[in-house]
Design brief:
By secondary structure, this protein is α/β, with parallel strands linked by helices. It has 3 domains: about 5-90, Winged helix-like DNA-binding domain superfamily/Winged helix DNA-binding domain (Arc Repressor Mutant, subunit A, Orthogonal Bundle); about 90-165 and about 270-305, D-Maltodextrin-Binding Protein, domain 2 (3-Layer(aba) Sandwich), CATH 3.40.190; about 165-260, D-Maltodextrin-Binding Protein, domain 2 (3-Layer(aba) Sandwich), CATH 3.40.190. About 45% of the residues lie in helices and about 20% in strands. The strands form 3 sheets. Strands 4-3-5-12-6-13 form a 6-stranded mixed beta sheet, sandwiched between helices. The chain has a 5-stranded mixed beta sheet with strand order 9-8-10-7-11, sandwiched between helices. The chain is elongated, with a radius of gyration of 29 Å. It starts with a helix and ends with a strand.
Length: about 300
């Protein structure tokens, strides 16, 4: 901290009411403390202390200054503790429970960046359904949970949420790639691969087509987002995913996320959760921040982050 020595000198003189007494407690010379005080007064253009016969007493300006000094010293102590916490995060173990699609899509890039910064932290990723993610975090079997449409649950705190919308995902050469936004009806001109009934995607898409009174019969169904992406590659298939799910492929030019403009298509919420009680260790805090940073960097008008 800049000028930390001068601030500590000033604080001790104010407490002791004497330069000599402060010098004895700090084990420094009286002249060194006196010089610092004179420099501070010169910089302020005002006296900090009334110099009485037997003691020093703060002036009104000195009272304002000492309140600032003590708050600054407290902030610095908190900073030092935080730095020590982060130093301790050079090693550790973190378990995150998440959905299959996020485990195979978003998290690999997050964890690659995290490992570069913290190579000795071991991270375990568990792929589970939403209800099981909640149970794992509550039971302490996972430190963090990341999933779509998690229910609000006592004992869990949402540290961040992102409101997303499903879009049509196609290869760059697909006719729909040039139509953004597209309509639900536009997608019916092509074979569709859809998430099965175990996935939130299924209910959102089938409901949207039903509400729009559009006939809908997907060619393939699967509970694997990897399969859905693979079917789209090199073909005229269309699948439905969020921008988060395909961010890596879109940045590499392999897939295109096409916004769907239709009032019948509801959004979904991606939530990062942790236990409400108990302190997370530094390694868990750092991974939590890495996830938030990565999602905040995904530039799209379909994602509106809300961090608590």
């Amino acid at each position: 901290m800049l000028h930390a020595r001068a601030l500590r000198y000033l604080d001790e003189v104010a407490r002791q009411g004497s330069i000599r007494a402060a010098a004895e407690r700090l084990n420094v010379s009286s002249s060194a403390i006196n010089r610092q005080i004179l420099e501070l007064e010169d910089g302020l253009g005002a006296q900090i202390f009334h110099r009485l016969s037997k003691r020093l007493r703060l002036t009104p300006i000195g009272e304002l200054l000492i309140a600032h000094v003590r708050q600054t010293l407290k902030d610095y102590e908190r900073l030092q503790l935080r730095v020590e916490d982060l130093k301790g995060a050079r090693t550790g173990d973190v378990t995150i429970a998440t959905m299959n699609g996020l485990a195979g899509g978003l998290l690999p890039s997050v964890l690659a960046a995290f490992r570069k910064a913290h190579p000795r932290v071991q991270v375990s990723v568990r792929s589970l359904f939403a209800d099981d993610i909640v149970k794992a975090v509550l039971a302490g079997e996972a430190d963090l949970g990341l999933a779509y449409n998690l229910p609000k649950t006592p004992g869990l705190t949402a540290s961040a949420t992102w409101h997303t919308r499903l879009g049509a995902v196609v290869v760059p050469t697909h006719p729909l790639a040039l139509r953004s936004p597209a309509r639900l009806a536009d997608c019916l001109d092509y074979p569709i691969v859809l998430g099965d009934q175990s996935m939130t995607i299924h209910a959102l898409i089938t409901s949207a087509f039903h509400e729009a009174s559009l006939p809908f019969e997907p060619t393939f169904r699967s509970n694997s987002i990897e399969f859905m992406k693979a079917m789209v590659h090199g073909a005229d298939f269309v699948t439905f995913l969020s921008r988060i799910d395909v961010d890596e492929e879109q940045r590499k030019g392999l897939l295109v996320y096409v916004t769907i403009k239709d009032r019948h298509l509801q959004g979904q919420t991606l939530t990062l959760v942790r236990r409400s009680k108990g302190m997370l260790d530094a390694a868990v805090n750092l991974l939590e921040e890495e996830i938030k940073t990565t999602l905040a960097a995904i530039e799209t008008d379909t994602i509106l982050p809300s961090v608590s």
